[in-house]
Automatic annotation (TrEMBL):
Bilayer topology annotation: Multi-pass membrane protein
Signal peptide positions on this chain: none
Gene Ontology MF terms in the entry: transmembrane transporter activity
Coiled coil start-end: none
Keyword Cell membrane assigned: yes
Protein family (similarity comment): Belongs to the ABC-4 integral membrane protein family.
PANTHER family in alphabetical order: ABC TRANSPORTER PERMEASE YTRF, MEMBRANE COMPONENT OF TRANSPORTER-RELATED
Ranges where the ABC3 transporter permease C-terminal domain occurs: 302-415, 717-831
Protein name: FtsX-like permease family protein
Transmembrane segments: 21-43, 296-321, 352-377, 389-411, 442-462, 710-736, 766-785, 805-827
Location of the protein in the cell: Cell membrane
């Protein structure tokens, strides 16, 4: 038999006959390498893979001003059409900046709706992004008004249906547009909320079918108020290689010159705050917010597990091959070199490597497939996400490296001067287990790493659990937002009459009419607010100078919300003083309000909550406080409850009508929405309503806390596998070394030692490494925790000594059981048989 075939055949036999050696290695390596490669594939998809239709994404950044009104309350400005036009003119960025604008109208061809979205963009957008033209005319400054461009996916879908749209006319709203070109599908910013969800796999595709209209945004007048809804417009994007943005102070000075005089004082106050920022965010980050941070976390977690696995493998190789030192010594005495031995052992372990690689590929695919399920919502995906040739190469390389390290370190312990002694020992009683320095170091290292990684994982899991799963301060289950949109802004504005109180007004009749249709169409649905509630896609904020109880003034920021009878109770908002509005007060249009606790504290800092009831909202207000509500979280991804709210019984009608619904049976409402039955019923009464959208509070929370939930579950996986690897590695090592030392154990039994004495002997040898590992791990944990809190904005919870002690105790118990149980099993098999064999 040829040497290569001999070693391969020997390795194949070892794979099935030496399970004490092969099984721990197979489990350790395949699981951790599979997780690592899965994390690499996800990171590549999130951070490196080119975005569809945006080949120059690395050169593109958004420009936005983040105004900090309080320590926890901020809002973004420079987000309107007028801002964009002024920026392009002032910075001469007509051909180096662009913006997207979502259109409400849906495209049609031959009277049938196209499954697509319509966008308007600045004419220079495609050139800045590097979007390719697939067919037809390429966009330029001279032809951008000649028609529309459609994305490749829409074109191909229609062509398969027998419609070649290139050169054809499609209808968008009241206008007919000629399709003059086909372009790549463009990965869009998440802010536009237009990602396409594949509900079967919980995946969001970044590029969806699109129709593009182009205009010259640089010609938008300074007074333009069109399209200022936050959800309709993207940020302003610039080519950072061609546009130079001045420093923060100079940029703010310029921006103040563009602000209306009526708002200039407010903007001046907030722009002067040191924590108000000029933010430039990479285009990729806007398309896949948080994806880069999540990818780094997944990579770090998987890498740490792989490190422990390599320590495991090295320890197991060390124990296994120490028992074969006599065999290796004979070969070395006869002229073999260590390098040749290493190559032969690599060949011998090839079957084990192949099985490890195959299992790692399976685990990596499972990790990628199940990651969206951990998020409980749709997970952004940049095209396909799969194990490719590069990932397979990485799996093979990491597996080879792990095996080579284990074999190299094991053979490095063979001393040339001690070869004769190894031969004479015949492997009996060789100090191969917990007595040699390499094993001591590796076991102590593994224990230290187990404590450090487990504590870090628990701390991160605890932080993200609080954000993702803790109480919001209001009910999330069974509450939904319903939005109705119209493209007739004049019709919407006609309902806003300052001289009219809300109840009984035209605005109230409009919202009540829609409420009647909703509740008649779905009998198990009740409308608890005729406006948006505490959790919505958009928030209104007001900042005004208020006069406090003592006569002093303070700039106060708050968000107004609609107050109607029963809303606070049904929304699960706790009232700590006073009461909510009654039906009688609501119908009589009494000027009353319920405020949150933090607003009451700000205006009346010296009064008790009971004494604040009956006071005006502030000294200059006609609204009387009738109730004080507990603070609640404004945003699901933040633990802050410092945003102030005022609930009043009035509504301002805009081109988006919002309603807050409470359901007993979500399926009933879903059926109405999917069939467009509810929209058609509303349009019978109000034909100006053009579209309807629906989102549950639970979906809103899931989307906002997706990253926190993934990190939470991944942290638990990290802790679980860290402890599992400790069990597998240490118990595997104990089984090997105890079995190999059966000769020595038999000698001790002939001298009167009991089985319990033999177990105690092994435990005594192991305790030294336990103490060393625990001590080093605890010190490193404390140092790393303090270092991260001092040098990074990690916002970790306070160091929990009880948790550390519990983790040390659990790790110690796992370690001692991993030594004791395998030892007892081996000793129970009667080591005296080793003497009879020899």
């Amino acid at each position: 038999m040829k040497p290569v075939n001999y070693f391969l055949f020997s390795g194949l036999k070892k794979l099935f006959n030496q399970k004490r050696f092969t099984l721990p290695i197979l489990l350790s390596l395949s699981i951790t390498i599979g997780l690592l490669i899965g994390a690499l594939v996800i990171a590549n998809n999130n951070a490196l893979k080119p975005l569809s239709g945006v080949s120059k994404a690395q050169n593109i950044s958004s420009v936005v001003i983040d105004l900090n009104m309080t320590d926890t309350l901020s809002f973004e400005t420079m987000t309107s059409r007028a801002d964009f036009g002024q920026f392009m003119r002032h910075f001469d960025a007509r051909e180096q900046a662009f913006v997207f604008e979502k259109q409400q109208s849906l495209p049609q061809f031959n009277g049938e709706s196209l499954d697509s979205y319509v966008f308007k963009a600045h004419f220079a957008a495609l050139d800045i992004m590097g979007t390719k033209t697939i067919k037809g005319s390429a966009l330029n400054e001279r032809n951008f008004e000649s028609g529309v461009w459609i994305s490749e996916s829409l074109y191909e879908k229609q062509r398969q249906a027998g419609n070649d749209l290139l050169g054809k006319t499609i209808t968008i709203g009241p206008s007919a547009q000629l399709v003059v070109g086909i372009i790549e599908d463009i990965a869009l910013p998440r802010k536009l909320t237009l990602a396409s969800t594949d509900t079967s796999s919980n995946i969001v595709n970044l590029a969806v079918p699109q129709v593009w209209i182009f205009e010259d945004f640089s010609k938008i007048p300074d007074s333009s108020t069109d399209g200022q809804m936050a959800s309709e417009l993207s940020y302003l994007y610039i080519d950072t290689t061609k546009v130079t943005i001045p420093n923060r102070e100079d940029f703010f000075k310029w921006y103040l010159t563009t602000v209306d005089d009526s708002q200039k004082m407010m903007y001046e106050v907030f722009l002067k705050k040191p924590d108000s920022n000029l933010e430039l965010s990479a285009y990729r980050e806007d398309v896949m917010p948080g994806a880069k941070k999540m990818s780094l976390f997944l990579l770090l977690s998987a890498s740490l597990l792989a490190l422990i696995a390599i320590v495991n493998v090295t320890n197991l190789f060390n124990a296994y091959y120490t028992a074969r030192f006599n065999e290796f010594s004979v070969r070395l005495i006869h002229g073999a070199r260590k390098s040749v031995l290493r190559r032969q052992l690599m060949l011998e372990n090839t079957p084990l490597m192949v099985f490890s690689i195959l299992l790692a590929v399976i685990i990596a695919n499972l990790f990628i497939a199940f990651l969206p399920l951990l998020s409980l919502t749709s997970l952004s995906r940049n095209g396909t996400m799969e194990i490719d040739a590069l990932a397979i190469t990485a799996i093979i390389a990491i597996t080879l490296l792990a095996f080579y390290i284990g074999i190299y370190l094991s053979l490095s312990r063979i001393k040339e001067k001690a070869l004769q002694g190894y031969i004479q020992s015949s492997g009996k009683g060789v100090s191969m287990d917990y007595q040699n320095p390499l094993t001591k170091t590796l076991v102590s290292t593994q224990l230290a790493l187990t404590i450090v990684f487990s504590f870090a994982g628990l701390a991160i899991a605890y932080k993200n659990y609080n954000i993702a799963f803790s109480d919001m301060g209001y009910q999330v289950e069974h509450i939904h937002n319903l939005e109705l949109k119209t493209d007739d802004s004049d019709w919407a504005d006609s309902f806003n009459k300052e001289e009219q109180a809300f109840y009984g007004s035209d605005a109230h009749q409009l919202t009540s009419s829609i409420v009647e249709v909703i509740e008649q169409s779905a009998l198990k649905v009740s409308v608890i607010s005729q406006d948006y509630g505490v959790l919505a896609n958009i928030y209104k904020f007001y900042t005004q100078l208020v006069t406090k109880e003592d006569g002093s003034t303070q700039m106060l920021s708050y968000s107004p919300l609609h107050l109607q009878p029963g809303y606070l109770e049904q929304a699960g908002i706790n009232i700590i003083a006073g009461k909510s509005i009654t039906t009688e007060q609501y119908q009589q249009n009494e000027k009353v309000a319920v405020v949150t606790k933090n607003l009451a504290d700000a205006v009346y800092p010296k009064l008790s909550y009971a004494d604040i009831i009956g006071k005006p909202v502030n000294k200059d207000s006609s609204s009387i406080i009738i109730g004080i509500a507990e603070n609640f979280r404004r945003h699901p991804s933040s633990m802050s409850r410092e945003s102030a709210y005022i609930f009043r019984p009035d509504i301002h009608i805009t081109d988006t009508l919002r309603f807050t619904l409470k359901t007993q049976n979500g399926a009933e409402l879903n059926d109405l929405l999917e069939s467009d039955l509810l929209l058609s019923k509303i349009q019978v009464r109000h034909p100006q309503i053009k579209s309807l959208s629906f989102k549950s509070y639970q979906d809103h929370v899931n989307a906002a806390t997706m990253q926190q939930r993934i990190i939470f579950y991944t942290s638990l996986i990290l802790v679980t596998f860290t402890l599992l690897l400790a069990v597998v590695g240490i118990s595997g090592l104990t089984i090997l070394t105890t079995k190999q030392k059966s000769y020595e154990l038999a000698i001790r039994m002939t001298q009167g030692a009991t089985r319990l004495d033999l177990v105690s002997l092994m435990l005594k040898r192991a305790v030294i490494m336990l103490v060393a590992g625990v001590a080093v791990g605890s010190v490193i944990t404390l140092w790393v925790y303090d270092y991260i809190n001092l040098n990074f904005n990690a916002e970790l919870p306070a160091f929990n000594w009880v948790a550390l002690m519990a983790l040390i105790l659990m790790s110690s118990v796992i370690y001692l059981l991993s030594v004791m149980l395998p030892t007892w099993n081996i000793v129970a098999q009667n080591p005296l048989s080793a003497l009879r064999r020899d």
